[in-house]
Amino acid sequence: MADKITSIDPDLDRLSVDTARVLSADAVERANSGHPGLPMALAPLAFVLFADVMKHDPSAPDWADRDRFVLSPGHGSMLLYSALHLSGYDLPLSELENFRQWGSRTPGHPEFDPAHPTPGVETTTGPLGQGFANGVGMAVAERWLRGRFGSEVQDHRTWGIVSDGDLMEGIAAEAASLAGHLGLGRLVYCWDDNSISLDGPTSMSFDGEDVVKRFDAYGWQTLSVDTVDDLDELRSALAEGAAEEERPTLIRVKSVIGWPAPNKQNTSGVHGAPLGSDELRAVKEALGFNPDESFVIPEGVPERWSAVERGSAARAEWEARFAEFLSADSDTADLWRAAWQGKALPGLAAALPTWSTADGAVATRAAGGKALAAVADHLPTMLGGSADLASSVKATVPGGGDFTKSENGRNIHFGVREHAMGAMVNGIALHGGIVRPFGSTFLQFADYMRSAIRLSALMRLNTTWVFSHDSIALGEDGPTHQPVEHIATLRAIPGLTVIRPSDANETAEAWRVISEELDGPAVLILSRQDLLVLDRDVLGPVSGLGGGAYTLACDGNPSAVIIATGSEVELALQAREKLAASGTEVRVVAMPSWELFDRRPEAERNEVLPPGLPAVSVEAGISMGWERFAQAHVSVERFGASAPAEVLMEKFGITADAVVDRVNGLLSD
Predict the structure, then answer these.
(1) What pLDDT is recorded for position 7?
(2) Residue 176 near residue 86 (C-beta atoms within 8 A)
(3) Which pLDDT score is estimated for 6?
(4) What's residue 360's pLDDT?
(5) What is the pLDDT of residue 5?
(6) Nearest to 361 by CA among 502, 182, 491, 472
(7) Parallel, antiparallel, or unpaired for β 438-442 and 464-468?
(8) Which residues are identified as catalytic?
(9) Residues in the chain with pLDDT < 50?
(10) 3-state helix, strand, coil in the chain (%, to 5)
(11) What is the sign, positive or negative, of the torsion defined by CA atoms of 184, 410, 378, 512?
(12) Per-residue pLDDT at 1
């Protein structure tokens, strides 16, 4: 980070700022949709960050050692798009003119989409607070990689703009608390203190606390800039924030939303609607722009905004250091390359643990913990942790050490902060170089993480969510801890692969598929109770998990199919024996993942589930969605209760006899 920068041409600086203001207002007006207030108010801050402060190279937006920037209030997206265009990223003016239109790279909120990228956009922001926590995750990733590979290859900062709305969200409080605890000194956030929210003044709901003192208490450095239009004061505060290595920094930046709109500034009227033609004309006249022209960029402004020359020089310096790093240690260089390509090292399948029937019954959470140990050896930059439930979920990297203020281990203690954990894991994945980061807790608490999980699917991130205590069979803790609808709600998220293995070996295979074959986020759902290890000498091979569903057992002339997941696969096999004793032959199918099954060709799916053969689904949760595959269901359609697991399964009808009854009833119809 350079020392404080001072302007050599204040008039050009002011013109450069005002150009971003007008560009943003023009784009919102053209779209007849969007939020002009924040981009107009914070154009000075964006200018100083992108033109003078941040280490970034618009000609190489994926450069590994670039600074990261997060616009957490994504409704102000035109601020980011204007800054990216003006500073030299491959975001043509035509894309700004196409703001919020079909197929454009300037959607309503910033979107990180590997298949349709907007260069310079580091994360998808929209739900307030998520971006705040994403940035904390990015700072974790940077510090871990710097500790692992050295500052010669990882030496950058995470910058962000956060809003009043972000700071009202509980997720931001969780993430800020953990960031302070971890001493993430290379994290600098600018709080847009404008005192306006969509419904009106923030005094209606947000004047009962002192935000600066709150962040002081979290262990952050706090600074203040009295007016966003003082560029030198901004530069000074940002330099001070960058100089602090022991604490994250929050800079309170006072702004007037929508300035200089004469009638709508400092009102909620510029929070979520275009200015209107008359107000926009007045803004342009006030700033010295021709009110009859749109999307105008005055001479000299692109050159002042441009970060290409400065960024290219910084990248060239890094590349020289990086070349020395690669030549000094070939093993470390290979590890770096694999990490940034998101690949597992060779040999994972052979290293995974296996179980036999002689091992008795094994909870899949326990099997998952042992499998994770092997996976971590082959994904040596995997980081993750639990929301204070590592001892229960078993999702830890054995021997990996802890990630703390003073240690650079691989196990993150998120504390009881499920909201922050979800979004931080996304941020770790977004940073790059960390392969398959994971977060873990009880399945019931996936609700706390749902927005982050949804965003991981929206962004196609290679994250893994590990949830144990997967049904009413967790027992005496009762309905507050017993998930009933949760598997169905996770399956409802597009792009999310949900896997519920039926025994220890399926669990290990699930981890292999996630680590070596899957592109996108995965949910691994595991049991608290012990499950029998299935006899693969007589049943279908565990490799069938990769196809989502496979035949475990099939009688000679089956008249029905029993489809089951997780712990209920045992019941399906028991029901098969009971039905066979009465002369009814069936096929038993394990279906650990609907999503993996859906990706198979139709002919292969029909081999597993022959069309016309009636089917019964068996899963200790609600049956919603199972009608795709089955005509009758053994399920749990109400909340659980407090009792031992075996009592609950009997009382709720999750038994082999219940499966037999459903099959017989289906065949008699």
Answers:
(1) 64
(2) no
(3) 60
(4) 96
(5) 58
(6) 502
(7) parallel
(8) 418
(9) 1-3
(10) 45, 15, 40
(11) negative
(12) 43
Instruction: Tell me the pairing of strands 550-554 and 586-590.
Output: antiparallel
Predicted pLDDT at 208: 83
CA distance 110 to 106: 7
Q: What is the pLDDT of residue 155?
A: 97
Are 74 and 131 within 8 A, CB to CB? yes
Question: What's the pTM value of the predicted model, to 2 decimals?
Answer: 0.97
Between CA 539 and CA 535 the distance in angstroms is: 6
Contact 444, 474 (CB under 8 A): no
What 3 state SS string does 314-326 have?
Answer: HHHHHHHHHHHHH
User: Is residue 497 within 8 Å of residue 596, measured between CB atoms?
Assistant: yes
Helix (H, G, I), strand (E, B) or coil at 633: strand
DSSP codes, 507-524: HHHHHHHHHHT--S-EEE
Q: Which value, to the nearest 10 degrees, does the dihedral of the CA atoms of residues 118, 174, 440, 449 take?
A: -60
Return the pLDDT at 617: 98
CA distance 526 to 347: 25
- What domains, with CATH codes, occur in the chain? 10-313 (3.40.50.970), 348-532 (3.40.50.970), 547-668 (3.40.50.920)
**pLDDT at position 669, please?**
81
Q: Which residue has 């199972």 as its token pair?
A: 626
Task: Report the candidate in 241, 242, 239, 275 with the shortest Cα–Cα distance to residue 260.
Answer: 275
